[in-house]
């Protein structure tokens, strides 16, 4: 009578009608005067049916309530993901904006504040063409020094999706240079990136000036080694460069050969003192200039008063200046026997000058080659960055779209047998988004020039045990045997990055292995330890072995969905910074062996801020007073609900001042303090710990929850004895850390 596939409201209405009909029937039977026994029997049957329908109704309402709660949790998770995306945009060094349907959707502060006069226009809904037009018309652009750089132009509408790309450079009035790049993605969105290249431009200027100075130095050196007297003049006849030989041959005092002296004054001095015997010829100074203006050269031979013969040549230069060379040709007038010897000496001198010039030319060629290689490297880095951002945007959209679909399916199938599977798929989609964002953040940190590492000595066995517990479900789901050989060795490295590298290698091995097993073990090699990951998977060809460590690259033959192609890229970057050699041996169809070699260390004690590798205890009640300090209301509420579900009494505060007031109000210190690092108005979790410990007079166990993983925060954790838990928080590790910190205090 009732179809279980119909909505709950319709099922409940039908049940109410059936109950009402049964009650009316019982009342009518009483009115007709049925026997007492039949009335009693009807009442019993009616009561049983009413109870059964009531239970069905309660079960339906309970199922509906659970579905509503799960949907609310899914919405909260989606909001956290959106906030994480916004945080990632804020962390970018340059300006970034996303246009959807050629309308501005979202941008970071760097993008908005670049040009103050168009900042009021940078709002959601701004048209892409309007943005380009506003940039082109900005009064902060330096239009007098464009350097051949074009203004931004709207992209052609007829270009196919995926091919719309443009890049241009603009110069601001304060001598700052920016490169604006925009590309249309496959989904029709337009990503705009603003990158400051001021340092590159200024460095190019300095290099250009350095080369000019170097060329002048080489030119002067070449002049000084010549037997000729050389002197260059500007287009206005002012002396620029000369060698000592020029003054010696011409007999002109050094004061007259200073830089800036005019050619006419030098000629007048020579004529006035009759240094050269012109045999009564009149000065041809004006004629020389006219000949040089026509591009002709001037050559004359003079005789000094002491009998030396000089050959004077004047040639024009490309910049309308001219060069004067004076050569002693006295020997040409001597006997023929001495002529050949003189020619050989002159030839040797010229050869030496040519050798010096050739050396200079070779050095200049090398410099130009180095500059060309540097430019090609910079262009390759920019291309790789652009390709990386485009691929990352695409891979981010994929799991988000899948999550939206699963949400729609969850709404439609709530209460049906398939709902659990839909929720599981939705969870995997958001886990994929989290993994990708974490990978992007790791690559961004490793590629930055100021990447920080926390190098310590720690027990490798605890790290491997934690990895075994985390990855065992993945191997079981794949049907793969995962074995991690225990180790008692201590090593020196960055614990977080080393764990991430080994985890990436093991996950890759599981994903690319259809059947068989994955083995993780360690081999001592002198004062170093080689951590090896063996698998019986598909193997990697020699061609792929040279490229799989690039971002977004998978081995040939791998199925779609086997990963994002970022794991090995993170391994390569992290191990390169840590100086941990990475080795790969593989054979297609047989399997692969990846290894990481790390320095061994003497057994010791882990630092206070490192998270414990202990078995979490989630079964017992958390009978503790927990102070939670978090400036985000949603995260504070969520953390409060989780802790209370574990049995804890929670004191929730939004700042250090609120936390201190709460502690003074209850008159006792909490058993443990959980504080976010970044609070409002310059407040932070470290200050919260200091304040509450000072008020209580005891060292309250504390945990800082933050996405900040800088070395300075870890150093403070060691000094002040608090632990650091990275966001996003894993509840299993949070519970284990609370148990560990509170047990340590009791002990």
Describe this structure in words.
The modification 4-aspartylphosphate is found at residue 676. Residues 391-602 form the Histidine kinase domain. InterPro entries: CheY-like_superfamily, HATPase_C_sf, HATPase_dom, His_kinase_dom, HisK_dim/P_dom, HisK_dim/P_sf, PAS-like_dom_sf, Sensor_HK_Regulatory. With 747 residues, the protein is of the alpha+beta class. Helix content is 49%, strand content 18%. The strands form 4 sheets. Strands 12, 13, 14, 15, 16, 17 and 18 form a 7-stranded mixed sheet that branches. A 6-stranded antiparallel sheet has the order 7-6-11-10-9-8. Strand 17 (582-587) and strand 18 form a beta hairpin. It is elongated, with a radius of gyration of 41 Å.
Which key phrases capture this entry?
alpha+beta, 19 helices, 747 residues, 18% strand
Describe the protein's topology.
Layout: H1 8-31, H2 36-91, E1 95-100, E2 103-107, H3 109-113, H4 128-136, E3 165-171, E4 177-184, E5 190-196, H5 198-224, E6 229-233, E7 239-242, H6 244-250, H7 263-272, E8 276-277, H8 285-293, E9 298-304, E10 309-316, E11 322-328, H9 336-413, H10 419-447, E12 455-459, H11 460-478, E13 481-484, E14 490-494, H12 495-511, E15 517-525, E16 528-535, H13 542-545, H14 567-578, E17 582-587, E18 591-601, E19 625-629, H15 633-645, E20 649-653, H16 656-666, E21 672-676, H17 685-696, E22 702-706, H18 711-720, E23 723-726, H19 731-746
Helix pairs in contact: 1-2, 2-10, 5-9, 9-10, 10-14, 11-12, 12-14, 16-17
Organism: Sinorhizobium psoraleae
Keywords: Kinase, Phosphoprotein, Transferase, Two-component regulatory system
GO molecular function: kinase activity
């Amino acid at each position: 009578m009732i179809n279980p596939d119909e909505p709950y409201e319709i099922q409940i209405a039908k049940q109410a009608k059936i109950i009402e009909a049964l009650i009316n029937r019982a009342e009518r039977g009483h009115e007709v005067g049925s026997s007492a026994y039949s009335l009693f029997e009807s009442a019993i049957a009616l009561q049983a049916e009413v109870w059964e329908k009531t239970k069905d109704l309660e079960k339906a309402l309970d199922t509906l309530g659970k579905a509503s709660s799960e949907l609310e949790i899914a919405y909260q998770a989606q909001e956290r993901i959106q906030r994480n995306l916004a945080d990632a945009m804020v962390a970018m060094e340059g300006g970034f904006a996303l246009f959807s349907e050629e309308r501005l959707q979202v941008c970071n502060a760097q993008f908005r504040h670049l040009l103050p006069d168009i900042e009021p226009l940078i709002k959601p809904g701004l048209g892409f063409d309007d943005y380009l037009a506003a940039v082109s018309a900005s009064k902060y652009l330096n239009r007098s020094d464009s350097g051949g750089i074009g203004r931004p132009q709207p992209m052609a509408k007829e270009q196919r999706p995926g091919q719309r790309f443009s890049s241009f450079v603009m110069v601001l009035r304060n001598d700052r240079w920016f490169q604006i790049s925009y590309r249309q993605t496959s989904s029709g969105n337009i990503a705009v990136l603003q990158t400051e290249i001021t340092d590159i431009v200024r460095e190019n200027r300095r290099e250009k000036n350095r080369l000019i100075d170097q060329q002048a130095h080489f030119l002067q050196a070449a002049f000084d080694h010549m037997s000729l007297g050389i002197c260059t003049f500007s287009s206005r006849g002012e002396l620029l460069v000369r060698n000592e030989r020029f003054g010696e041959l011409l007999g002109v005092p050094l004061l007259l050969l200073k830089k800036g002296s005019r050619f006419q004054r030098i000629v007048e001095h020579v004529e006035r003192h009759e240094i050269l015997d012109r045999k009564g010829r009149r000065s041809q100074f004006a004629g020389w200039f006219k000949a040089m203006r026509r591009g002709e050269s001037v050559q004359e031979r003079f005789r000094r008063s002491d009998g030396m013969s000089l050959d004077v040549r004047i040639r024009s230069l490309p910049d309308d200046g001219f060069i004067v060379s004076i050569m002693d040709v006295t020997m040409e007038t001597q006997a023929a026997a001495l002529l050949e010897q003189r020619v050989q000496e002159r030839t040797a001198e010229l050869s030496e000058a040519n050798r010096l010039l050739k050396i200079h030319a070779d050095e200049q060629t090398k410099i130009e080659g180095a500059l060309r290689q540097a430019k090609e490297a910079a262009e390759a880095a920019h291309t790789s960055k652009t390709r990386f951002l485009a691929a990352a945007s695409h891979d981010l959209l994929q799991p988000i779209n899948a999550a939206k679909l699963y949400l729609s399916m969850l709404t439609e199938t709530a209460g049906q047998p398939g709902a659990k599977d839909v929720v599981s798929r939705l969870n995997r989609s958001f886990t994929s988004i989290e993994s990708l964002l974490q990978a992007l953040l790791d690559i961004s940190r490793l590629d930055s020039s100021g990447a920080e590492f926390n190098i310590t000595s720690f027990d490798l066995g605890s790290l491997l045990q934690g990895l075994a517990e985390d990855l065992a479900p993945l191997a079981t789901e794949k049907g793969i045997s995962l074995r991690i050989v225990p180790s008692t060795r201590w090593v020196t490295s960055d614990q977080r990055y080393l764990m991430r590298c080994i985890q990436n290698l093991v996950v890759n091995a599981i994903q690319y292995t259809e059947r068989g097993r994955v083995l993780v073990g360690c081999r001592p090699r002198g004062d170093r330890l080689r951590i090896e990951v063996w698998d019986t998977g598909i193997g990697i060809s020699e061609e792929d072995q040279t490229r799989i460590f690039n971002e977004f690259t998978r081995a040939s033959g791998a199925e779609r969905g086997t990963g994002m192609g970022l794991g090995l890229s993170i391994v390569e970057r992290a191990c390169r910074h840590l100086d941990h050699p990475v080795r790969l041996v593989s054979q297609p169809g047989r399997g692969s062996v990846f290894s990481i070699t790390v320095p061994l260390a003497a057994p010791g004690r882990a630092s206070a801020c490192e998270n414990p590798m202990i078995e979490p205890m989630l079964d017992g009640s958390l009978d503790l007073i927990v102070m939670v300090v978090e400036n985000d209301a949603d995260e504070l509420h969520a953390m409060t609900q989780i802790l209370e579900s574990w049995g804890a009494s929670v004191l929730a505060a939004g700042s250090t001042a609120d936390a201190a007031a709460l502690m003074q109000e209850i008159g006792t210190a909490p058993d443990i303090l959980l504080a976010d690092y970044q609070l409002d108005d310059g407040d932070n979790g470290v200050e919260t710990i200091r304040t509450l410990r000072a008020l209580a007079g005891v060292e309250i166990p504390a945990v800082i929850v933050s996405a900040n993983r800088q070395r300075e925060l870890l150093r403070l954790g060691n000094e002040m004895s608090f632990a650091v838990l990275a966001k996003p928080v894993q509840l299993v590790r949070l519970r284990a850390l609370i148990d560990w910190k509170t047990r340590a205090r009791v002990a």
